Amino acid sequence: MAEAHPVGFRWVMKAKERGARIINIDPRYSRTSEIADHHVHIRAGTDIAFLGGLIRHVLETESYFHEYVVNYTNASTIINEDFRDAEDLGGLFSGFDPETGTYDRSSWMYEGGEMASAAGVREHASQAFEEQTGAGMHGGHMHRDDTLQHSRCVFQILRRHFSRYTPAMVQRICGISAEDFDAVAKALIENSGRERTTAFCYALGWTQHTAGVQMIRTAAILQLLLGNIGRPGGGIMALRGHASIQGSTDIPTLYDLLPGYLHMPRAGEEELDLKSYIDTGGAERGWWSNFDKYIVSFLKAWFGDAATEENGYGFGAIPRISGNHSHFATTMRMLDGGVEGFFVMGQNPAVGSQHAGLQRRALAKLKWLVVRDLAEIETATFWRDSPEVQSGELSPGQIQTEVFLMPAAAHVEKEGCFTNTQRLVQFRDKALEPPGDARSELWFMHHLAKRVKAHYAGSDRRRDWPIVNLRWDYPELGENREPDVEAVMKEINGYEVASGRLVSGFGELRNDGSTACGCWIYSGIFAGGINQARRRNPGEIRSEGGDVSPEWAWAWPANRRMLYNRASADPQGRPWSERKKYVWWDDAQGRWTGYDVPDFPADKAPDYRASDDATGMDAINGDDPFMMMADGRAWLYSPSGLLDGPLPTHYEPIESPVHNLLYPDLGADPAGIRWRRPENPLHATADPRYPIVATTFRLTEHHTAGGMSRTLPWLGELQPEMFAEIDPVLARERGIEDGGWMTIVTDRAEIEARALVTDRMRPLQVDGRPVHQVGLPWHWGYSGGYPGDSTNDLGALSGDPNVSIQESKAFTCDVKAGRRSVPTTERLKGVAANAPRVAPNEDDGNAFGVAGECAWRQTRGGVDQ
Amino acid sequence: MSGTVAAPTELAIHRSGARRMGFFTDTTVCIGCKACEVACKQWNDLPADGSQFKKGGSYDHTGDLSASTWRHVRFVELLEPSPQLQQEAIGALPASSGALPAIPPAGELLGSSGALPAIPPAGELPDLVAMAEGVGSKWLFMSDVCKHCTNAGCLDACPTGALIRTEHQTVVLQADVCNGCGYCVPACPFGVVARDPVDGRAGKCTLCYDRLQDGLEPACAKACPTDSIQFGPYEDLVTQAERRVAELHRRGVDGAYLYGAADEPEHELAGGLGAFFLLTEPPERYGLPAEADSPIQENLLAATAAAIGAGLLAASGAALAFATARRRLH
């Protein structure tokens, strides 16, 4: 965190000065480790084993927060008797289909619960938010055992599932000593409970794995057992990889989401009309019973008066997804000739994306490419200076891609909001006009859309309806005709269609076309006609609860700073302790009150009990804090929503030097996505050619793929050359000298780097033998003032089944002394020429589904190995 | 010695009401982010130094303070990368065969009935390694800067008056007066000031004299996210720093001490440093001298005696010549 979020780390430092203890778990000893009170080296990719070990320890020593667990989690819920755990089936859960590599999840259900029809449908690779929170579950009647003794209650299933995650097992798998394990366990337990809370902060070291979602979930289970969720000083913070990347999922740039985490409708399924879409996404109980208000209001924002009840508010005009259209699926399709044009805005896939050599070869198949950036980044110049062009494999004469390089305004040259990881939306003013032709993203998209609309104006073809009827009337300001960003914010906030009055929150949204709202979770950001995100009043931060600072900018939803904060009070509505007061029930007023906006219906008393046939929010009891879930409880065990298991299980990374010690017949996540093509060779487990674990990391001095830092001498000179961190034993074995050159090799590429031989890297004792790890920063590319080889050339494509994220944080490699003798991606030479052909507008039969260990083709014509 | 007025031989600006200002750099809260280095360059529009990976510099590739680097972050990896040490560490771990407890196959723990044994009562947790505060650093981060010495060697050596003492007791180098003679360079015991190889003139930290005119804090202090660099009136900084050292001692960081402030009189560094540091290892670890003073000050007594002697000699020689000349005349 000190490296990637130095300004945010200021607060960790202040907490430390006030007595907080900092524990750092990382394959490397980083700048954060130096500040931490305790650093633990871990083998990259084995965090589920480590966290699972902590879970087992907490359970078996009865150190969990009993009252919190019984009342606020689904620990007492009984699971149906058809369920089989990974411990029963050698690492698989019940319902796995080896042919497709997917799970039929019906056996995971609660006893007495019913699965909605949509959940029986095979899922695409990305999961919509409402699915993860239980929208698929409605109807039925759950059974519970509050004594937590029933053999099929979640609590006992959890015990069985993690029973073998002993400290000895953690030592063998993770390379973490029993002393380190016990120290961390002790610190966690001592610092959790009524009087104290513990926070977890994680970043891409958990996310970027084929079991990444489950890794994060393991921490969630641990935190729930310790009673740290929804309480001040607790929780799990995701440290993002980019400024405002939270905003890019909220108002999404993701292919499978509509704003506010509504799911994109899918082609070929029962979502052809609005009603069936609402049936899929909504739920009878809990918050998602409001689903229809959000989608209808959204459609009214997009299509204005053209959206009527008769035409389903234009729902039919929303594009449908027909498969996995995420980055890597698109890369493969691009390689096959199936993508004509590509917009790349503030991204540099030629350097920053996994399997970068493949990315560059794919770009060469485009007809046209638009790159918007502050500098001429590698993605814009690949056609003349990429390693593949330099080696002669590709030539500018042959590459048909027409590249449009458009200058972008920098962040002080435009106004608008950034959304940070705490859902805090902060509006920033413009400090100066952008130079020359540089323009903001908003300007670019606004004027592009205007031109497209002008082109199709007057068309009466059905397929042109969405463009013709898209409501696009933002005022333009100033010499540059910059669209008024506050007008966009007001549309996002929502308004009454007839009067134009801005709504003050999503509670005012209706399902009858009388309201419009661009993104329901942001509704309220312009309440009262005031740009709430522009506020900068910290308030009395030293007063009790003053550090919530509710008037500093605006947080979604509804300016609530902490989600699920009902859990900061006990079932009777009293704070768990005076020290950890946050929100509580005021009996005299008959309302919830406190330091933050309560995340609960304001007037629902703690002793409210739902009747059996209650629906919507009435089905949530007064002591069910997790109201986004259909049963109001936090899910230790997830009966639905995740594609690879109701519980996290230790799976090895797809490339690992060791076998899975718990499940020898399995290795990696069986539901993980693999692209089995000759262009994407994967190393076998324990391949003797690649015994070293590689992990990537970031430096403070550089930013992602280097477009903003290697082009600036003040930053470039701080870390001028690509280097790798290597431990002294491995360095000596390979003849690598500190400061000298070394080469890192995989089946995808070989890259050269300067060697930083340091004791901060350690070989770990894994399953009784030393395993070495190397640390690779990934900021370097072939252009800019400080060029170097790209770490991302080394990795293959693979994906977490739930979100398609790549596994860049743990893969295997070998290292040798000296500079490389061949072009970086020489071993992939010719793959682009041999790729199968797909026509751009042709549906390639890329159906939903994920590739398991079995043969499954992501694009037609892919060949099995 | 705080708030010392500039020696009468210095070229100095005086303004009534001006206080001595300085830096207190607390290395125990530095995260090595280099924001200070970049903020300084940006504010003073200084060029980049180079583009070479420096072997042995850890994360430090700018290398040193120079004419175009006025704040410089040093990284010291304390543990020598020793293959031997690591082999010993590996050897201390359980060997590969026999000694490792086996991972039972799934199902063994469950027994034939599929039920888990009852949860044992919460007994004693295993004997644990204590998590002491300040277990010991592995990596030092230190933001180095001109020390703005009370006895400033560079200022004492400068023949042109380029180097002056400001009303804040800081030392500022006026580039437009500098003739590039380089006398200041060897005179600085800390190796701070240097000549630009292209331009020929010397340059160093001004403690953002221009920003101070407008009531702003120096660029590095403003940019530092963890307040490792603290700026303010010198006496206040010394008081804060002494309190910080006491707090660190209380927490078990016994090695914490101030470098350049509240020194023992016989070990005073250059009369006291306007920009002083909190360190946790001996100064040499950070590339700092244990003892230092302005060479002119060091030699002041001898130099004065020599000067007086030379003056006497000259005077006597002149008198003799005069006397001789007078005899000739007559």
Spatial separation of the terminal alpha carbons of chain B: 60 Å
Q: Taking Cα atoms only, what radius of gyration of chain A do you get, to the nearest Å?
A: 27 Å
Number of distinct beta strands of chain B: 10
Distance, first to last CA of chain A: 40 Å
Report the uncertain regions of chain A: 116-126, 845-865
What's the helix count of chain A?
A: 23
Average pLDDT level of chain B = 82
Radius of gyration of chain B: 29 Å
User: Largest sheet of chain A, described in full?
Assistant: 6 strands, mixed
Question: Can you walk me through this structure?
Answer:
The complex is a heterodimer of chains A (865) and B (330). Helices cover 22% and strands 13% of the residues of chain A. Chain A has 23 helices and 32 strands. A six-stranded mixed sheet of chain A has the order 25-27-26-32-24-30. A three-stranded parallel sheet of chain A has the order 11-12-13, covered by helices on one side. In chain A, strands 14-15-20 form a three-stranded antiparallel sheet. In chain A, helix 3 (47-60) runs antiparallel to helix 7 (167-174). The model of chain A is unreliable at 116-126 and 845-865 (pLDDT under 50). Chain B is an alpha+beta fold and 330 residues long. In chain B, the strands form four sheets. A four-stranded mixed sheet of chain B has the order 8-1-10-9. Chain B has a two-stranded antiparallel sheet with strand order 2-3. A two-stranded antiparallel ribbon of chain B has the order 4-5. Chains A and B meet through helix 1, helix 2, helix 6, helix 7 and helix 8 of A and helix 1 and helix 2 of B.
